Amino acid sequence: MTGDMRPEDFKTVYDRFQASVSRFDCGRFCAPLNNGQPVCCDTSHAIPVVDKPEFELLKGRTDLWHRYKPVDANSRQIVADLHKGCMAIECKGARFCERDNRTLACRAFPFYPYFTKANELVGLATYWIFADRCWLISNMQVVERKFIREFIAAYEYVFDRDPEEKDAMRRQSASHRRVATRNNQPILIIGRNGGFLKAMPRGGEIKPAGPRDMVRHGPYKSPRAYARAVKEMDGEMPKQSPFID
Description:
By secondary structure, the protein is of the alpha+beta class.
């Protein structure tokens, strides 16, 4: 984010966007495949990026967050490419999470606001590069309606104050469409008013989505694939099955 958001604006976003994404603790399902750490809380997978005023707010509320220090060529490049109004940060880890002091990116993960070619915000799409690691992307049916409402309201609040962030999400949506076209696969979207939609490859036309569009990825394709992956990582199987109807 690079526009006119102030620390107090981010406080408003935090106050309004507190809903849990689902009633399941999805980190318990991916952590056995990632040395016990939820993927979304591990900077080797996802480096949180915030607007500097958001970090200013966080510094006044908690010591949970600190500036991220790159550890390899890839992470150095990610940090180097950031807009001057943004910065990469890192928390102390999932065990020390303070829900009230999660960033907007943390609250929204793995979703981003999806815009059509006509620039209409129709719902929530996922950051596709995490499909092989994020349990939630394979189980989008568990996302709570309250989360959807608060997600949309939070981002519309941001977009009203930061047109550059809105443009960034439009570009993200366009990039996702290009990937969908290359892979000849639709983009699954949670509609802003509930239900599921899909943006078709080669054009991005929005259509209703059905059960056949609910694709599972990576180790979440089957119980057997998941058990094998956990064993390969010397992880511990969760007490609750990650396969939810």
